[in-house]
Here is the input.
Amino acid sequence: MSLKEQLFADLKTAMKEKDSVRKDTVQLIRSGILQIEKDNKVELEDDAIIDVITKQLKSRKDSLPDYEKSGRTDLIEKLNQEIDILLGYLPEQLSEAEIQTIVEEAVKESGASSIKDMGKVMAVITPKVKGRADNKIVGSFVKKMLQGNQ
Here is the structure.
C-alpha cells in the first residue's frame, strides 16, 4: 500500500472514530500533497510525500517553544499528538549513534577539514538521512566534528 493510500485509509478511520486530531493532521498532509501535485502537475511518489510530511513535522516542532513560552498546555498537548502522528508516517528515525556514524563517514568521504566544508558534508549526508533524521540535529553533529578537526 502506498503512503497516499495509507493516508486516505487513515483519514476514513479517523472520521469513523471521531478522532479530530488525527483527521485534521492527515487532512493537512493530504492538502499539502495535493497542492504540490496541482502546482507541478505531477503525481507524488512516496519519497516526495515523505518530504511533505517532514516539512510539516519541522513546522510543528518549531512552533512548540512558542507555545511553551506562552503556557498553552492545551495547544502543546495537541501539537505533541500531531507530531506523534506525523512520525508514524515517516521511516524509523535514526539514533544519535547512527547519525554520528553517518557524519563520520561523510566527513571522510568528502575530505572535509574545516567548518567551511560543512556544505560538502551535508550534501553527502542529506540523501542518506532523508526523512529519518532532523537536519538541525545532523548539522549540529557535523559542526561539532568539523570544529574538532581544526
